[in-house]
């Protein structure tokens, strides 16, 4: 104690050249005053820590209501004989005979509840205890009787291990001198087991047996027929489901049914698949090119369509970009890569060509539609909707009217406001990626129709093109008594009419089946003017753009989509003059080879019935020259789909896939005209086909169900 904090005194170092002497400490004289001071300072040992900083098991803490007070005299250390004046701080070690068998001797033992008093501080909750009779009567996830869940207390706290000491030796800070033992504190109730929200096992087992009964143990394929499906040949007599129509709705339905193990036969009168969104060959002075029969707009809201394209392995043929709208008149609007609705707010705040009043009106329309849950007044048209929300006429002509005509293929004065609100809800009112523009790098046939046909062939489906179905014959199955449908030379349990409504109505009338409201749909054409330039002489074009329509000057183009440079399938000799659909003589520099392709969309093409094709082509060429300048196109081909979509009016019929369940059991419908409150789009066709297939699978799975 006397030498604490003092450095040893060393002797004077030896002279140079002599052996170095070892330094020896010199003791200091003991000072009685310093010793007494040290004894007074260290007589009681280290100062006790406050109770809130005490790090021990919860079982040794004071009762509730006394925690947090100053330690005072009620500290957690107990006096020991012989250590009244100086008590050392004890560590968390036990004597060697009390160490756990699995622990090494001398290894510190962490704080824990005593082995004999562990469960005492945790009492059961009476009738809600997991081990009670009420809980043992519950069913487990495997439908066997027993406890609903494991016991709340682990095995290590249910009692002392055999051969283990009943409790550790008392230590300085074990809390043995507390006034109230921790075990007497009010115990917390253990919550009882929640009721099991599980499906009963009996109907699940019956459903599995019914599903397995119709599948082959060797191949896992449905055994609805006795012979395998022919791949690409004549359909066998045992085919169960026939799909009439190889459009996007029919292909999605056939894929879902074939992937579920059903035997499918696909019929179509056309030589290729795709329906009203197919790939065609177009002969031009620059060569023969593969293009679409019409330019289609794909947006990020087409979730099921894009997912199906990805699943078929054609996702690499799609490009994606944020929403961007522009026109030669000066409109510029581009969404930012921000979460919704900030991306749309940024587009409105930075838009050019729209004044402050137009921006406020656009924002007001979107907010009011959102508050109304994107629903309009029954029977209301788009013109009435825009007037009710006080949209300026200039904004309607520049923004809302082109969007309505392009999305619904119906004039605003006749278009359904509910369908227009649904389009705004799924694009501008949804997340940011829903409003993206998706541009294909290849014709539409390579995106879904061709990969879907290859997938169906791999699944064993029968594909029959150039096979028109002119009549459906219903026959009763002598074994089951159910109706079977004879199509061409095969019999089927069920059939899906994935056709346009006017085609389905004509087929039903020929089969002596009343079509009902199916025949009330009116078709509306869409025209696409395909403009081609030599690849080295094309003007600078945007990827897509709104066009300023002016019917008085024969400027009917509404949208332009740049398809980039395309290569011809084969080169053709350049004629001296172009065809009647092309303006003027052939340009001097035009030669067969790669070309720049752009599609100009003319929706509601029924307005062009009074015009000649030459007048329409001349107007489109002049419209392109006025908007973008540059040389005129070397060729312009006008392709008109006379029955492209149905006229989306408020009074059109709303039908379902099972519209014919009463007069024709087993006959289903699919098509873009069946999806409720949605215009004729690719997404509506894919959704309708998938929904019809799921309905068929659900009806076939339920035991005892007669379709």
Query: At CATH's second level, what is the architecture of one domain?
Result: 3-Layer(bba) Sandwich
Major sheet: arrangement of strands? 10-2-1-14-20
Q: Tell me, rounded to a whole number, the average pLDDT.
A: 75
Let me know the CATH homologous superfamily of one domain. FAD/NAD(P)-binding domain
Number of helices: 15
Q: How large a portion of the residues is in β-strands, by DSSP E?
A: 5-15%
Terminus-to-terminus distance: 102 Å
Number of strands: 20
Radius of gyration: 42 Å
DSSP helix fraction: 10-25%
CATH top level assignment of one domain = Alpha Beta
Summarize the structure.
With 707 residues, this protein is α+β, with helices and mostly antiparallel strands. It contains 15 helices and 20 strands.
List the helices and strands and how they pair.
Blueprint (H helix, E strand, L loop, with lengths): L31 H11 L90 H4 L64 H13 L27 E4 L3 H12 L4 E4 L11 E6 L2 E6 L5 E2 L3 H9 L6 E4 L2 E3 L5 E3 L7 H8 L6 H16 L10 H7 L4 H16 L8 H10 L10 E4 L3 H4 L1 H10 L3 E3 L8 E4 L6 E5 L2 E3 L1 E5 L2 H10 L12 E12 L9 E3 L12 E8 L28 E8 L10 H16 L6 E12 L20 E4 L11 H20 L6
Parallel strand pairs: 1-2, 1-14, 2-10, 14-20
Antiparallel strand pairs: 3-4, 5-9, 6-9, 7-8, 11-12, 12-13, 15-18, 15-19, 16-17, 17-18
Helix pairs in contact: 4-12, 4-15
Walk me through the structure:
GO terms for molecular function: oxidoreductase activity. It comes from Zeimonas arvi. This protein is α+β, with helices and mostly antiparallel strands. Helix content is about 25%, strand content about 15%. Strands 10-2-1-14-20 form a five-stranded parallel sheet, covered by helices on one side. α4 runs parallel beside α12 and α4 packs parallel to α15. The longest helix is centred in the last third of the chain and has 20 residues. The protein is globular, with a radius of gyration of 42 Å.
């Amino acid at each position: 104690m006397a030498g604490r904090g003092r450095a040893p005194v060393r002797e004077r170092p030896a002279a140079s050249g002599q052996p170095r002497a070892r330094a020896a400490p010199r003791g200091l004289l003991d000072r009685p005053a310093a010793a007494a001071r040290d004894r007074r300072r260290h007589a009681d040992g280290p100062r006790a820590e406050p109770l809130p900083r005490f790090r021990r098991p919860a079982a040794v803490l004071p009762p509730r209501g006394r925690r947090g007070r100053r330690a005072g005299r009620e500290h957690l250390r107990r006096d020991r004989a012989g250590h009244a004046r100086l008590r050392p701080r004890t560590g968390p070690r036990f004597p060697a005979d009390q160490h756990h068998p699995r622990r090494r001797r001398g290894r510190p033992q962490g704080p824990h509840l005593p082995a004999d008093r562990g469960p005492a501080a945790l009492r059961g909750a009476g009738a809600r205890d997991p081990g009670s009779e009420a809980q043992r009567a519950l069913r487990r996830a495997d439908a066997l009787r027993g406890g609903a869940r494991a016991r709340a207390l682990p095995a290590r706290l249910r009692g002392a291990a055999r051969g283990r000491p009943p409790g550790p030796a008392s230590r300085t800070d074990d809390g043995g001198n507390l006034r109230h033992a921790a075990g007497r504190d009010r115990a917390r109730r253990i919550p009882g087991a929640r009721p099991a929200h599980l499906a009963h096992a009996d109907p699940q087992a019956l459903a599995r047996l019914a599903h397995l009964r119709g599948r082959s143990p060797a191949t896992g394929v449905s055994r609805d027929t006795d012979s395998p499906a022919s791949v690409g040949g004549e359909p066998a007599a045992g085919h169960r489901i026939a799909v009439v129509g190889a459009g996007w709705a029919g292909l999605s339905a056939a894929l879902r049914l074939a992937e579920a193990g059903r035997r499918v036969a696909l019929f179509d009168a056309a030589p290729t698949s795709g329906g009203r969104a197919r790939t065609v060959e177009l002969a031009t002075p620059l060569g023969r090119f593969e293009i679409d029969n019409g330019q289609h707009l794909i947006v990020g809201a087409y979730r099921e369509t894009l997912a199906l394209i990805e699943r078929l392995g054609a996702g690499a043929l799609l490009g994606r970009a944020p929403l961007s709208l522009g026109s030669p008149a000066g409109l510029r609007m581009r969404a930012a890569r921000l979460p919704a609705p900030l991306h749309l707010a940024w587009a409105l705040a930075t838009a050019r060509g729209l004044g402050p009043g137009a921006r406020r009106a656009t924002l007001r329309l979107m907010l009011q539609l959102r508050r109304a849950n994107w629903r309009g007044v029954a029977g209301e048209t788009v013109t009435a909707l825009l007037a009710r929300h006080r949209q300026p006429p200039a904004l309607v002509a520049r923004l809302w009217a082109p969007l309505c005509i392009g999305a619904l293929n119906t004039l605003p004065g006749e278009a359904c406001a509910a369908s227009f609100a649904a389009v705004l809800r799924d694009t501008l009112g949804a997340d940011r990626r829903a409003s993206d523009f998706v541009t294909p790098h290849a014709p539409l046939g390579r995106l879904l129709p061709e990969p879907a046909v290859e997938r169906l062939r791999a699944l064993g489906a029968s594909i029959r093109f150039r096979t028109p179905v002119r009549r459906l014959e219903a026959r009763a199955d002598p074994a089951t008594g159910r109706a079977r449908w004879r199509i061409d030379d095969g019999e089927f349990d069920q059939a899906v009419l994935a056709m346009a409504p006017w085609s389905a109505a004509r087929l039903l009338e020929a089969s002596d089946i009343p079509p009902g409201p199916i025949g009330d749909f009116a078709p509306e054409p869409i025209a696409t003017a395909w403009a081609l330039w030599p690849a080295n002489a094309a003007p600078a074009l945007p990827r897509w753009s709104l066009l300023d329509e002016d019917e008085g000057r024969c400027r009917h183009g509404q949208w332009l989509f740049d398809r980039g440079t395309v290569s011809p399938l084969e080169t053709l000799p350049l004629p001296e003059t172009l065809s009647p659909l092309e303006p003027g003589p052939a340009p001097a520099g035009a030669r067969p080879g790669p070309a720049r392709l752009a599609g100009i969309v003319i929706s509601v093409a029924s307005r062009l019935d009074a015009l000649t094709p030459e007048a329409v082509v001349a107007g489109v060429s002049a419209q392109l020259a006025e908007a973008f300048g540059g040389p005129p196109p070397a060729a312009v081909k006008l392709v008109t789909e006379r029955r492209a979509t149905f006229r989306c009016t408020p009074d059109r019929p709303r039908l379902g896939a099972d519209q014919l369940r009463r007069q024709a059991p087993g006959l289903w419908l699919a098509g873009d005209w069946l999806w409720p409150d949605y215009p004729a789009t690719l997404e509506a066709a894919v959704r309708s086909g998938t929904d019809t297939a799921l309905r068929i699978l659900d009806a076939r799975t339920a035991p005892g169900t007669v379709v």
